[in-house]
């Protein structure tokens, strides 16, 4: 018996990486019976029948799992946003950060194309960067040249399972392709075969890049807070978590409660008002969410 990590799942086969070898495994009937679907990223116990084939015995407990792409035990999300073309969107970034935080995934913010900014725009972006760093987030700035993005990102990938996500049109796929040029074929293949705009379910694969594993499809195709409760929303804003012990009420939602340290922080400017505005928007959206049966 051995342990390893599923790096690809395809047509009922699971490809398990263990000590630099890959074993093609089938799932046992017990998974179906227990309604467990092994996912890419799962740590598993397997029995090898020969050098290349075996079967899964057990899926170990996950620290998180994503629905799209279907992947488990993600360590970090590299959130790619552009400073220009398309313009930087703090509202969208905060939405991604909340989704990532709620799944216990470490976010790394990567802002690209900063070489295309005017002086005024540059100063605006620097203010945002200062804010996000003060909340404890890792922020990387890169130019529109893909090579620079790669050089900045490489050290963050080592020993981690990473998923790329972020604004559309910012070149997530180009970055992935530049990290591993053989991916180029895949994206070209798929669009040629399926035509544009068709919804396609692709298998996910973890690809070894710079000593870490990276999901080969950008993550979070759905940006709705379908799994998040209003009570947990404040935990997804680190600057709120930091001061919430000083709120008068335990479990303060920082909206109508008196003597709320978060609202005091917004008034005094220690918590940026745009972050609080986004918090209120997300809170309303979750409260008005239709119940699912």
UniProtKB/TrEMBL annotation:
<protein>
    <recommendedName>
        <fullName>Small ribosomal subunit biogenesis GTPase RsgA</fullName>
        <ecNumber>3.6.1.-</ecNumber>
    </recommendedName>
</protein>
<feature type="binding site">
    <location>
        <position position="247"/>
    </location>
    <ligand>
        <name>Zn(2+)</name>
    </ligand>
</feature>
<feature type="binding site">
    <location>
        <position position="254"/>
    </location>
    <ligand>
        <name>Zn(2+)</name>
    </ligand>
</feature>
<keyword id="KW-0342">GTP-binding</keyword>
<feature type="binding site">
    <location>
        <position position="260"/>
    </location>
    <ligand>
        <name>Zn(2+)</name>
    </ligand>
</feature>
<dbReference type="InterPro" id="IPR010914">
    <property type="entry name" value="RsgA_GTPase_dom"/>
</dbReference>
<feature type="binding site">
    <location>
        <begin position="112"/>
        <end position="115"/>
    </location>
    <ligand>
        <name>GTP</name>
    </ligand>
</feature>
<feature type="binding site">
    <location>
        <begin position="166"/>
        <end position="174"/>
    </location>
    <ligand>
        <name>GTP</name>
    </ligand>
</feature>
<keyword id="KW-0479">Metal-binding</keyword>
<comment type="similarity">
    <text>Belongs to the TRAFAC class YlqF/YawG GTPase family. RsgA subfamily.</text>
</comment>
<dbReference type="Pfam" id="PF16745">
    <property type="entry name" value="RsgA_N"/>
</dbReference>
<feature type="domain" description="EngC GTPase">
    <location>
        <begin position="72"/>
        <end position="221"/>
    </location>
</feature>
<dbReference type="InterPro" id="IPR030378">
    <property type="entry name" value="G_CP_dom"/>
</dbReference>
<dbReference type="InterPro" id="IPR004881">
    <property type="entry name" value="Ribosome_biogen_GTPase_RsgA"/>
</dbReference>
<feature type="binding site">
    <location>
        <position position="252"/>
    </location>
    <ligand>
        <name>Zn(2+)</name>
    </ligand>
</feature>
<keyword id="KW-0690">Ribosome biogenesis</keyword>
<dbReference type="InterPro" id="IPR027417">
    <property type="entry name" value="P-loop_NTPase"/>
</dbReference>
<comment type="subunit">
    <text>Monomer. Associates with 30S ribosomal subunit, binds 16S rRNA.</text>
</comment>
<keyword id="KW-0694">RNA-binding</keyword>
<keyword id="KW-0699">rRNA-binding</keyword>
<feature type="domain" description="CP-type G">
    <location>
        <begin position="63"/>
        <end position="223"/>
    </location>
</feature>
<dbReference type="Pfam" id="PF03193">
    <property type="entry name" value="RsgA_GTPase"/>
</dbReference>
<dbReference type="InterPro" id="IPR012340">
    <property type="entry name" value="NA-bd_OB-fold"/>
</dbReference>
<comment type="function">
    <text>One of several proteins that assist in the late maturation steps of the functional core of the 30S ribosomal subunit. Helps release RbfA from mature subunits. May play a role in the assembly of ribosomal proteins into the subunit. Circularly permuted GTPase that catalyzes slow GTP hydrolysis, GTPase activity is stimulated by the 30S ribosomal subunit.</text>
</comment>
<keyword id="KW-0378">Hydrolase</keyword>
<keyword id="KW-0862">Zinc</keyword>
<keyword id="KW-0963">Cytoplasm</keyword>
<keyword id="KW-0547">Nucleotide-binding</keyword>
<dbReference type="InterPro" id="IPR031944">
    <property type="entry name" value="RsgA_N"/>
</dbReference>
